Amino acid sequence: MSEYTTEVKDLPTIEAVDITNYLVLQTSYYTRQQMKAFKSLEAYNFFVSGWVHNLGTKRLRDGYSLVFARSAVMAKLQGFEFWRKTLKEARYVVAPMVDQSELAWRLLSRRHGAQLCYTPMLHAQVFVRDANYRRENLYNEVCEEDSPLIAQFCANDPEVFLQAALLAQDYCDAIDLNLGCPQMIAKRGHYGVFLQDEWDLLEKMVSLANEKLKVPITCKIRVFKEVEKTVRYAQMLENAGCQLLTVHGRTKDQKGAMTGIASWEHIKAVRQAVNIPVFANGNIQHLSDVERCIQETGVQGVMSAEGNLHNPALFEGRSPPVWEMAEEYLEVVKRYPPCTLSYVRAHLFKLWHHTLQIHQDLREELAKVKTLEGLADVSKQLRLRCQLEILCFVPFAPLLRLSHLICFYLIVSLNPVSFNFPLQGNKCVFSLCRGCCKKKAYKEVADCPSHGLRFKTKAEKRKAEEKEQAERSTTEVERSDHIPQPLQDSRRELEEPRLLL
Questions:
Q1: Which of 64, 118, 152, 350 has the fewest CB atoms within 10 Å distance of its CB?
Q2: Residue 450 sits in which domain range?
Q3: Are residues 442 and 311 in the same domain?
Q4: Where, subcellularly, is it found (predicted)?
């Protein structure tokens, strides 16, 4: 009971095995009607008056028991105390991922070393107005094994964000505000990283949530290009009441083909400037990268998104066979339903990303199946093919040729110094990656043979064609000027339409 206030530490409670984030009074099992009557007893009120809110009944085994939200009696921990006591000093963190960090995937990741997980990003406005959305995306996913857990919301209105957080706080250990999503849908919805320049609004959102919630408020951000501005941004959020900050070391524009390398330099500067725990996000391919990131930046933990999707055993330091992780994931999905089939299919595409480039027919079959059993059959086929491939090729081929059989995530370079010019090309005329080179070559109308870019050549060809066309037109005009007048009149008569009488 060390996490609770001293005033209620002697409250006679137990933690129910089948209810997470709730405390259950040590009472006998009664019927629902008897429990309702029991709520009004003075003896009961004596124990909980002033401390317990949101009373309710939950069915446990063969009867009902009085329950109340854990947050009702928890002391609201802050900063490093929150990280130490509630999050258990978590170092290995699974990122919030839209349609990807659902319960089954979180449980799989926890089995393989993850110490803290986030829910998928939830839309605050939809969460407030739609009870089904709340049940499907949070309430029905409450599980004892899935702890500690942080629920993430996207929002652009302080009141709506607060309402959503109040509805979610009894089902998680903290509420996170998404200030890092760079996708076009976030731009259209005006949330995520596209609130990055609206400091007054963000300050109000964080401070209001910090004031009203019983659980801590955290934030996930992206960096500005300038280190100093990034530091001021982080300090503003800390002063507003943010108790833990996750810093993704990429800018708003670093996405898709322009993703590039995350800047650990920015993350280190933020960590040194604030007095709250900081998680780093970006450039994580293997467990050794996690340890190196912690050592170089001084952060309390490291968050993984893409790396975790390609290899859920990343935090164990293993790269297991692709079929092993897929089969274990499908087993978890069956054990903890319901899980949307599209989520499961998307996870299998990530796990088998390299393998399906070789077995194209299985890729097509995976896209077509519409049942969990069908996905399991595809997984079985893939395992048999991979095992046969190992038997046939191990004695004769280098290990690299079999790399598609294991879970791994690859980014070309992990050099934080190349923050402004990521993934340098060896033969590129600008010494840039293809994405950056294409942008620069287009702007400067230049060529880059190594990347197959011919902007200058095409422009010169286009100008030559236009010049040739202009010269041809001029020549035709000059020729017409030298035609004798009688011939011009005859030509005009031939060109004019004649009326048939």
A1: 350
A2: 424-496
A3: no
A4: Cytoplasm; Nucleus
